[in-house]
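Suppose you are handed a protein chain with no further information: no name, no annotation, nothing but its sequence. What can you learn? This example shows the usual starting point.
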Amino acid sequence: MNNPAANPRSVLIAGGDSDPNLAALVSAFAGRGLLCETLFVGSQTHPRITWNFDQNALVINGIEKSPGAVFLRYDVFTSLADHRRASAFRAHAWFTTIAGWALTQPKVRMFNRASAQSVTNKLEVLRLARELGLEIPVTTVTNDHALLSSMVAQQQLIAKPVNGGDYTRELADVMSGAPQREGSLAAPSFVQERLVPPEVRVYWIAGRTFAFQVVADALDYRTTSDCKVVPIEDDALPRQISQGLGRLMERLEMDFGAADFKTCPVTGQLRFLELNNGPMFAAFDNACEGRLTAAMVDFLSTQ
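A reasonable first move is to predict its three-dimensional structure. Written in structure tokens, the prediction is:
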């Protein structure tokens, strides 16, 4: 691999102006003495952009840009803060524009280029993970009220949406307040055996793994601020996890993502839960003293 510090490419970092993950990546570039440009949007940030298809020119705030690499994150933070549909609409428009430009420029370096035009289906990924050697929880996908009622009476289970966007919850709690019509709940959900700590997140960055234990006294660690992230030594990650994740990333043509695992209470083995192709990383990067963003800078800045 070429030395990125000796052979840098111009990098554009784009997304929400209050996204701490982008702030961490910009800081990592600055720490290397490498320049990167930013295109941030938000409630108080309104850049101008023009993309002329005939000239293939990308003009930002009146200046033509030709970045050699792009790192883009969808701005979820503005709409979470102001709860306005207009903010979500605007974030989608900006993401579509920058992603569209980058995807049509074959020489522009970006994570997950080969898979960026497809939506990662959580059900497909879970099945693929099992086929490629990763253990997964016992799983049913259903909205059948009678079936769910019988399942919850037999064992402790959890439920979560098949398309994400909400926290993992106890199935019994979901059933206690879920409306039904003609024996059906509104939408199918994942229903899985309840796993236990330790919970592990593994980042995959261009063939390198970075593992962390997430310590939290909650079913879903995202629901609590009392959460600790502890780096796991490279040789402590079970080989079947790193190898299985590598096969999954190769099948999905991804070079950047984060996989979540939790422990089976019977076997004590880690079981794969899901793979995120645009994960948060700032807190994990802080816990490992910048190793995540260093690997990201390596990828984005190398010719």
